[in-house]
Amino acid sequence: MTDILKTPAVEGFIRMCEDGWLQGWHERNGGNLTYRMTEEDVETARPAFTAEPREWHEMGVACENLAGEYFITTGSGKYFRNVPLAPAANIGIVEINDAGSAWRIVWGLENGAVPTSEFPTHVMNHSVRKRVTGGANRVIYHCHATNVIALTYVLPLTDRDFTRPLWQSATECPVVFPEGVGVVPWMVPGGVDIAKATSKLMETYQAAVWAQHGLFASGPDFDTTFGLAHTIEKSAEIYVKVLSTGLPVRQTIEDESLRAIARDFGVTLNEAFLD
Ligand code: 13P
Ligand code: ZN
Questions:
Q1: Rounded to 5 degrees, what angle do the CA atoms 103, 106, 111 make?
Q2: Looking at the domain assignment, is residue 263 inside a domain?
């Protein structure tokens, strides 16, 4: 029988948890990750699914376009650093019901574990990203990216006030997230309100900053999603370092240069963030 831990979806999921831990973005149980499995992923993993169906749990949100989907998810209160050591206790696979409103565990999340407390936010974001990308997006990743969080104490909490310095602090940024980033004001985590606020932004953006909390990133696969979070955090780190020198900024990437990057790399920058 196939070892579920050796299937590409589960293996890739575990690797991303480890990568995030190694970056220092997952203190204690901080952060969470979900992956919407392909039909092939599900069929490969199915032999390992629980024989007895488990009970359904209502999510408090309903996403019809996710009916019948399967997600790999980190567990609530589980530590990313423990995922590679004991995957079945720290992550699991859940099935979504026909109404898109409830989940049940089909593998993992052993010993009474449940999906991340941010599961409603992940599910709503998956629903939006699945729709706006024509089904391409499959990964939602929440990390406590240090420098992104630091900037939420000193920058105005608007999409424009975050996007511009991020674009200007690393030349590849306008290419990686040409639509910019969204910003969610401080909100209580884990609830339906933050889920709604974030998913509204994800209609436009691939990533959203959570004030005084972290980053939400989406993408078609683990590499692209991790790469997006990494790029945003690296740019934030550079900007924090620039601000920390206390010296005046003598030069940056001006708007005409941002436009030149967009032209040569064939991307369309969000004009709302250019002068
Ligand atoms: P979970 O352990 O429930 O995933 O919560 C961690 C977190 O970062 C909440 O925002
Ligand atoms: Zn968090």
A1: 95
A2: yes
204 alpha carbon, distance to own chain's centre = 15
Is 229 in the same domain as 106? Answer: no
**Count of CB atoms within 10 A of residue 85's CB?**
11
CA of 133 to the centre of ligand 1 (A): 26
Does 265 lie in the same domain as 165? yes
Total of domains in the chain = 2
| pTM over 0.90, yes/no | yes
Q: Which residues contact 229 (CB under 8 A, 6 or more apart)?
A: 20, 25, 141, 143, 145, 207, 215, 217
The pLDDT mean for the chain works out to 97
Q: What is the pLDDT of residues 118-162, one digit of tens each?
A: 999 999 999 999 999 999 999 999 999 999 999 999 999 999 999
Whole-angstrom Cα distance, residue 78 to residue 12?
Answer: 18
Beta strand 139-143 pairing with 214-219:
antiparallel
Q: Is residue 128 part of a domain?
A: no
Any idea what the CATH number is for the domain that residue 156 is in?
Answer: 3.40.225.10
Q: Which of 116, 122, 141, 213, when mutated, tests ligand 1's pocket best, judged by the most ligand atoms within 8 Å of its CB? A: 116
